[in-house]
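hey so u asked for the seq, here:
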Amino acid sequence: MTDNWFIEKYTPYSGLGFSVRERLHDQQSPFQRIEVFENADYGRVLTLDGCVMLTDRDEFVYHEMITHPAILTHPAPENVLIVGGGDGGTVREVCRHPEVKRVDLVEIDEAVIEVSRRFFPGLTTRLEDPRVTIRCMDGFEYMDAHQGAYDVIIVDSIDPVGEAAKLFTSSFYSKVHAGLRENGTAVFQTESPFFSSDVLARVLRLLRPHFSFVQPYLAFIPTYPSGMWSFTIASLRGNIMEQGLLRQPGFQGEMKYFTPEMFNSAFSLPNFIKTALAD
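ran it, structure tokens below
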């Protein structure tokens, strides 16, 4: 970040830039560099190690789409685990569902939670929900002691580098499988299919030995690489697309991106992605 601009490079030749109206926070935690700045178009912006994690203006897309497809296709999503997600946005969306009785947030970097509480209060209000328990520890290690404990597991991880790289391995996916109850569902953020189709393809290949149904879907997030982002849902109870949504959300008017009508369309992949995954 310079004094006036923040630029995230996606490749050596392209990226996305933000004019910095005000620098609000800069710290090096034991795990990563955490920065917050203000931009005239997007409001406050949170970055980790130089990569945009969220902005005030478009965070709702990511958090709604990593949460609601998995929760609304599970028959009884009472116990939910979120690995990562220290900004609180995924917790906020999970807690909209009255069926959920318990939410465990496992975030390795306590500083991300503290910074988010300070600068993004709209994201973190549900961290105080009595259903929520926060554990600041390694999600990879947490899974070993919690087998068969969850109906839904949401892996809200950062990019597959550094500490987060092990969350994109067959060993971790095996732990997620073991952490689910019968008929459980897991969902993972799986990067930009435009710039990182190789990551998505590898995740699908590694997930399929552990789950009977694995399917990527898309959302469009302006401040993420290419604007096109993928998530992958994995189920132990077969093809969840055949059954569709099991409930209509009572809070539908509160959502800004996800709707029941666009559920199926999110799973319709452009041909260039299908080709890349087939190759």
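The mean pLDDT is 94. The longest strand covers residues 180-189.
lmk if thats what u needed
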